[in-house]
Write a structure and sequence with these properties.
With about 70 residues, this protein is mainly β. The protein has a domain of about 40 residues. Helix content is about 0%, strand content about 50%. Strand 2 and strand 3 form a beta hairpin. The protein is flat, with a radius of gyration of 15 Å. The mean pLDDT is about 85. The structure holds zinc ion (ZN). Zinc ion (ZN) binds next to loops.
Length: about 70
């Protein structure tokens, strides 16, 4: 399953990555954690976060990307 996609024609494709665990498997349960900030009491603006995956075979966690 794809984690990221392009949202505009002005963005250029750089590369495709297919992460693989040290155990050799390439199926992960993924999650994203974002930092929520509030402005004038209204939460919702995110500034930075991280996308992680847990291997379904050996349960190792790994970081896929830091977003900002
Ligand atoms: Zn693994």
């Amino acid at each position: 399953m794809r984690l990221f996609t392009f949202t505009g024609e002005h963005r250029k494709f750089l590369r495709e990555e297919r992460p693989e665990c040290d155990c050799g498997k390439s199926i992960f349960i993924t999650g994203e954690c974002e930092r929520i900030e509030g402005e004038q009491g209204i939460p919702g603006f995110f500034d930075e976060g991280v996308i992680v995956g847990k291997c379904i075979s050996c349960n190792r966690n790994r970081t896929f990307a830091f977003i900002d």
